[in-house]
Amino acid sequence: MRETEKNKKKRMDTDARSSKPVRDGKSFGDKSERRVLKESKSLKASKLLKASKELKESKESKGSRGSKESERYQGYQSDKPSKILKEIGRDKAKDKEKDREKNKEKNTKKLKKKSLCPVSARCGGCQYLDMPYEEQLKLKQAQMQKLLGKFCGVHPIHGMENPFHYRNKVHAVFGHRKGEPVSGVYEEGTHNLVPVESCLIEDQKADEIIGTIRGMLKSFKIRTYDEDTGYGLLRHVLIRRGFTTGEILVVLVTASPVFPSKNNFVKALRQKHPEITTIVQNINDRGTSMVLGDREHVLYGKGYIEDELCGFRFRISPKSFYQVNPVQTEYLYNKAIELAGLTGKETVLDAYCGIGTIGITASAHAGQVIGVELNPDAVRDAVQNAKCNNIKNIRFYCNDATKFMTQMAEAGDGVDVVLMDPPRSGSTEEFIRAVASVKAKRVVYVSCGPDTLARDLEVFKKYGYQAKSAWPVDLFPQTYHVETVVLLSHKKADSYIHIDVEFGEGEGKIPVDSIAKRAEAYKPKEKVTYKMIKEYIEAKYGFKVHTAYIAEVKRNLGLPMYDAPNAVEELKQPRKHPTPEKVEAIKDALRYFAVI
Ligand SMILES: C[S@@+](CC[C@H](N)C(=O)[O-])C[C@H]1O[C@@H](n2cnc3c(N)ncnc32)[C@H](O)[C@@H]1O
Question: What is the DSSP letter of 511?
């Protein structure tokens, strides 16, 4: 009967167990063979058979209880493995490697499963993406409490109903990989391009258009720009969508103004996406990390989009700032205007005004509004926005906010309320000092940088402004960023005494005719100087009196004396005293000036 592989193995097991070299009183063969057998489970049967045979032979020929050979055998195991053992070792290592790979795969799968976005870790833009939204809000609330709680009460953060796909502005970097065009974002802190097909916080239509552009590049022979070599044309694509109007702006950022077959490209893109309302070519030939360059050509449409916010219509050019989350922005602006407490009479300054969104929204509640903004494109938009919304009580200035405010303070101009919305880097101490100089009663500070906000609140405190309340708004769900609006007002007197006074005749009333007399009595007295006394005496008596004589008379009369800055401890000559005539003249002068 043919011996089966199973039987062979069984027999071999028994064989191996029958010869047990003993080391240190322990059954040596037991352990090592079991280990070999355990390891062999994964080996093919033939290899296993060969291995066990050789092991058995080696033990049978050399092994005896406590012999040197057994020690040598032991040595074989650790230092000099036989060919077969080497093989076993290799297989074992391979198995281990396989296990490791499997575990790695499992873990990666687990990680991938955990994150809602496949590129979340490399992109780094959505730090809180895999946290339930309620948790995100709690965390942000706690952060704001920690930062701003020492200045004022912090209201509960205003979250979003649907915290996904809220971004109306999408920016994609273009590059290539293995000859294929790719688009996405730079890996956090690097210039390594992470391909992105779609993003959970970006507008989906914008992502779709970016995908279409990427797909068109090859057929139009448009090469993406290579940062290292400087070759290629397309660097970035920027898309802006008016969520209310539906208008879409596509900005193609190119490294050179020469854009071959641009008309056909634009035509083809519009055919695929008739919803695009305008296309602009922006030329950025600089080696900086700035996305947009200075030059622009409108390839199709009006070159900007319009959107509606808080009941007003706003035009937005490619380089102008516009809040990325319009749903939350409406709440933010309405809160800012509510906190400003406008009655319709105030002069309001909208500092860092962008395209004039906050100022225009406030204009209906104010006497007049002055907007100041550094970016000329945004100021142009702001002026047009005021015209298009038929706002007559607003003016815009293109200037640095600090310079403008300082000039206002120097000119003695007054402002009742300051609305300020600086970039993430915050404002300046000079600006805040000037706010105090123009005697602004209230300041409404809108900020997307909580740290710089806290820093500026400290400076405001120094200039007499007290933070009254803080209102965090979640403008950037899935990320760690928070927008906040804070109301500050100029400190008033610490306390007041309320006194009711009744004038007229009768008990407890103050007679009207005595008021003038009393007022005279309360009038602060003119300061009587030694010079005045001397001049009086010289004019009336015809002689001069020394300052020391006047001081002596005053001292003798018990009148208050002040430190004499030129007094010396030791006099060079013995002190002289005034004659009785001079003493009388001095007393007369003191009476005349109502000192006595
Ligand atoms: C956060 S945005 C706010 C814009 C506007 N308030 C809004 O809500 O749309 C900050 C604005 O400040 C402008 N800016 C930056 N530095 C400035 C400065 N030194 N002086 C004036 N404006 C500045 C930027 O161009 C940008 O438009």
Answer: P
Rg of the chain in Å (alpha carbons) = 44
Residue nearest to atom 15 of ligand 1 (CA): 423
Active site residues: 448
Q: Is 373 in the pocket of ligand 1 (CB under 6 A)?
A: yes
> Could you check whether 169-303 and 325-490 share the same CATH topology?
no
Supply the DSSP symbol for 2: P
Which amino acid residue places its CA nearest to atom 26 of ligand 1? Answer: 354
pLDDT tens string 268-309: 999 999 999 999 999 999 988 889 999 999 999 999 999 999
**Confidence class for position 574, pLDDT limits 50, 70, 90:** confident
- CB of residue 431 inside a 6 A radius of ligand 1: no
pTM flag (> 0.90): no
Mean pLDDT rounded to a whole number for the chain: 84
- Within a 10 A sphere around the Cβ of 465, how many other Cβ atoms? 23
Atom of ligand 1 nearest to the CA of 323: 9
**Closest protein CA for atom 18 of ligand 1:** 400
Which of 329, 372, 374, 475 should be mutated for ligand 1, with most atoms under 8 A from CB?
A: 374
**What is the whole-number distance in angstroms between the Cα of residue 190 and the centre of ligand 1?**
27
Query: Is 166 known as a binding-site position?
Result: no
Q: Would you state the structure tokens that stand for residue 389, as one six-digit string?
A: 């919304």
Query: What are the residue ranges spanned by the domains of the chain?
Result: 5-96, 169-303, 325-490, 530-592
- 284 Cβ contact list (under 8 Å, min separation 6): 235, 236, 253, 254, 255, 290, 291, 292, 293
563 confidence band (pLDDT: 50, 70, 90): low
Residue 70 has pLDDT above 70, yes or no: no
Count, in order, helices (H) and strands (E) of the chain: 19, 19
Please work out whether the CB of residue 354 comes within 6 Å of at least one atom of ligand 1.
yes
What pLDDT digit, counting tens, does each position of 451-472 carry?
Answer: 999 999 999 999 999 999 999 9
Q: What number of other Cβ atoms are within 10 A of residue 266's Cβ?
A: 19
Q: 352 a known binding residue?
A: yes
Using pLDDT thresholds of 50, 70 and 90, give the confidence band for residue 354: very high
CATH for 169-303 (3.40.640.10, 2.40.50.1070, 3.20.20.70, 1.10.443.10): 2.40.50.1070
Q: Are strands 278-283 and 295-300 parallel, antiparallel or unpaired?
A: antiparallel
398 CB less than 6 Å from ligand 1?
Answer: no
Taking every pair of Cα atoms in the chain, the longest distance, rounded to a whole number of angstroms, is 158
- 301 φψ region: left (φ > 0), alpha (ψ -120 to 50), beta (else): left
Q: State if residue 483 touches ligand 1 by the CB under 6 angstroms criterion.
A: no
Is the beta carbon of 352 within 6 A of some atom in ligand 1? Answer: yes
CATH of domain 325-490: 3.40.50.150
Rounded to whole angstroms, the Cα distance separating 590 from 536 reads 10
